[in-house]
Amino acid sequence: MNSPDPAPPLPDRRDSVGYLTNWAARLLAKAMDDRLGPLGLASGYLPVFFALAGGAEMTQRDLAKLAAIEQPTMAATLARMERDGLVTRRPSPHDGRSALVALSAQAMQRVPDVVAAVADINGRALAGLSANEAAALRNALRTVIGNLEPGADTDPA
């Protein structure tokens, strides 16, 4: 009886783009959460926070699309943000079935601190890279995103 062919050797995870980007994303999210926690935010709030930081109002549906997440996930995020006093909702004057979401006055006051915190964490993440290397990394990540999600916005919030 023939024995099955041996399985091919496993790739070294340190050479796997998937492993490395996942690991980096988890570390970035943890660092962001640690830094944003004292400001009353979590990293998962950032797509909504920055989409609304300029004073815009958006529907839950539009926010979900912008953040590239499902509507139920966005609904839960907005519920937590509303509970935490970060967003307000008002009925849409154009569609009685939807609400417009905006940052609360309390959240708007935190915008400069949140921008500074995010810049600090991004700076830590890119420490040791030249400006050209950092730009090349951002461009490479945009390409990876474009390769995996055709038609998606390659500059996520």
TrEMBL record:
Gene3D superfamilies: Winged helix-like DNA-binding domain superfamily/Winged helix DNA-binding domain (1.10.10.10). InterPro entries: HTH_MarR-typ, WH-like_DNA-bd_sf, WH_DNA-bd_sf. Pfam families: MarR_2. Signal peptide: none annotated. Residues 14-146 form the HTH marR-type domain. It comes from the Bacteria. PANTHER family: TRANSCRIPTIONAL REGULATOR, MARR, TRANSCRIPTIONAL REPRESSOR OF EMRAB OPERON. This is DNA-binding MarR family transcriptional regulator. It comes from Phreatobacter oligotrophus.
